[in-house]
Write a structure and sequence with these properties.
Two copies of one chain form a homodimer. The longest helix of chain A is centred in the first third of the chain and has 10 residues. The first copy, chain A, has 219 residues and is an alpha+beta fold. Chain A is globular. The first copy, chain A, is 19% helix and 36% strand. The first copy, chain A, contains six helices and 13 strands. In chain A, the strands form three sheets. Chain A has a seven-stranded antiparallel sheet. In chain A, strands 2-12-13 form a three-stranded antiparallel sheet, with no helix packed on it.
């Protein structure tokens, strides 16, 4: 196996290290975060750092570096307190990636990329019309990660919208049916294919699949 | 589209809500975190919350609820300061899921699941031998998310190991070649297929693929 220790990682060329360290932690969620400034300029930016934080109350988080792009996202969230999170569909990966370009503050990435704004139930920031799963979120708090001055934003999920056909009877969203992508590193977009879904694991009991009623015989 | 607001989400049956809210934020990374207690008992547990935090220095984070399973992971990390993060390969999804079962404290999930311990370069906790990408990590800090009493652990990547053939010349790890999976919710395992990889986005310039040298013509 190839091995790098922390000293060797520290000496790598910057872009090589960015590519390596961004990809070594595994696949990431692929979302567009949309906001709107007080003066009415909409903003949308690709994020690979949206994470689940809790179900009751429903909460998510995402990590950003406020001193770099996308600054507008952070500024708008701090000003207005609301943002939307919209899944990236396989047919919109080019537009999603294009939102990472450094546009001027008064330019909406919606207008530049062909992503469409959608306003739902009186929520101030836009949703991405093309997205199959989308959430309206309210800023709750932020945590400064002092080790590298990134910020984790914590938010409540106030609204959740999705195409009805992707939900299974037990509540789960089958993301394969939504054709939601995952991100490999900073710039690789991948479409996952469901291998299996398993019931709750118990000591000494074989894992049971949701799809094959028979035990596989393996622990 | 189906719509739930936060009040409706709050009233959902618990397991239904867990399935829904864990899947609505998109695909998650699929890793096994391994530790070893001071008394020498190894531990390995599936985590879908490992995230990238920074490249220089190389840092990752993960979220846990220390008052529930997997407690041993947190206890061992606090005691010893070190842990490993190991990608879940498509051929080990059953074993990975089985690690979530509530075994007694003195039982190693390695022995119960067929996952193999591997010790590398004098690092105290074991790696998972079958994993194609694995990292040795040092605890740096933790942040209590007061909104729901989860904890984000922040760690330095001290060692990084991977199968050499999966790295592209610019440092990126092609996770499709590693056959690393992604997690949909708490219990769905999916294998991503790479759609495309894009160069750095710039205003007014068409997105360029790493694979098709020609512009697609779309922004």
């Amino acid at each position: 196996m190839k091995h790098y220790d922390s000293k060797e990682i520290g000496k790598l060329e910057k872009i090589f290290r960015l590519n390596l360290i961004n990809s070594c932690t595994g696949y990431k969620s692929a979302n567009l975060i949309a906001t709107k400034s007080e003066s009415g300029v909409s903003n949308v930016a690709v994020f690979n750092s949206v994470i689940h934080l809790g179900s009751n109350p429903a909460m998510l988080g995402f990590v950003l570096r406020p001193t770099t792009v996308p600054r507008n996202t952070y500024k708008n969230i701090k000003e207005g307190g609301f943002f939307t999170v919209n899944h990236i569909h396989k047919d919109m990966i080019e537009q999603a990636h294009q939102t990472a370009a450094k546009y001027e503050n008064n330019v909406s990435e919606f207008h530049q990329t062909g992503l469409l704004e959608e306003y739902l139930d009186g929520f101030y920031p836009p949703y991405v019309k093309q997205s199959v799963v989308k959430m309206g979120c309210r800023y709750l708090n932020e945590y400064l990660i002092i080790e590298n001055e990134t910020i984790m934003v914590v938010a409540a999920i106030e609204h959740l919208y999705f195409q009805e056909g992707i939900q299974t009877p037990d509540g789960w969203l089958r993301l394969e049916d939504a054709e939601t992508v995952a991100i490999n590193g900073l710039d690789g977009y991948a479409l996952p294919v469901l291998l299996d879904r398993f019931h709750y694991a118990r000591p000494g009991k074989a894992i049971r699949s949701f799809f094959n009623k028979e035990s596989s015989g393996k622990l």
